[in-house]
Input
Amino acid sequence: MSKVKRILSVIMAMVMVLAMSVPTFAAGENATITLKSFDKANKVEYMQIIQKDETKTSGWAFTNKAGKCFTEAFGLTDSEDAQQQVIWGLIQYKDNSVKLPTGVTATAATAAKIDLALSKVAALNGFIETTDQTKIEVSAAGVYAIKAEETGFTYKTATAYVGFGEPYPALTNAEVTAKKSPTTVDKTVADDDHVVAIGDIVTYTIEAYVPFLDAANTENRTFTITDKIKGAEYYLAGPNAVNSVTMEGKDGQVGEIVVNEDGKGFTVNLNTLVADTDNPNAGKKITVTYTAKVTKTTVENKAGSHAAGVDYGADNVPVKLFTGELVLLKYGDGNVNNALANAEFVLYKDGEEVPLTFTKQENGKYKYAPDAEDATATLVTDENGMIDVEGLDVGSYHF
Output
């Protein structure tokens, strides 16, 4: 019995990294592994990786080729003895007061080694797909690896411990809570009607999440957020400018907005947040907030995130802003067909004392240009007696 129950220490060591496992007594031949937060997964699979084996010094042994995954992760040449060293190392990782039997050696375990081992386990064949995302029924004591797939999320491989209760050999139940990270990238603008004027300073917010990266991936641990913009210029410094990158649970900046040379996009490098194979930041929300100055009659903006070579948010609909347009028709003698050309006007926004200024474009339209040196307040009707102005915000105006 003492050998059999030692596995509790093993799984609890894994659980600190992977998921919550709360064993409770349940009589009968089978045990139920209750799955929490797996209900929206497209697929849930499980496989036993440690089983009861009274011939081993620990009373337990790896199964389904999981042992090699652990010995490799622990830096050992794979053998039955090495696998027992790993199991004893896991026991002492949880409780360093455990005394080893005479002649037994333990290989020190760390959270990083355990995480790496289970990422290797997830790549093995032999996983069984469950049709019920709320529970798994098993008939043998041991440790089970559980992996899941869901559109819009990355999952961390979880483990569940099914031990023995009283009277022996009745099995205990287990409970596992999924740890997952959204891959969504949300982009919003602080302008409810999405109508702006040329020259306006608008504030954008990007929300993304630090992904889980496979612990076996040691060569490509990258995470970036990118933005692309048309019809506006980034306004990251100056009066009322906003320029910040933050992560929930951490004070201060976690990254820097670096604008591309062409000025049409930027990149936030967040590689440091995923550098640790323990994935301590996985699932935490990243918020990028910044301002941009409208320069065109329409603005289109799109954001995405990129983790270890995988792109997220590519299918998102761009955030669009529009400007308003006014058309004036000047005619004489009460006859709309009697258009008057070369009539001069100025345009005011109601409540303002200074007329708006414009530049004339090749298409004959006047574009609102509050900052242009060559802008003029004088608007002249064309041969059709019309003045067409664009680039205005919602509001009331008069010529």
In short: Residues 1-28 have pLDDT under 50 and may be disordered. The longest helix spans residues 80-94.
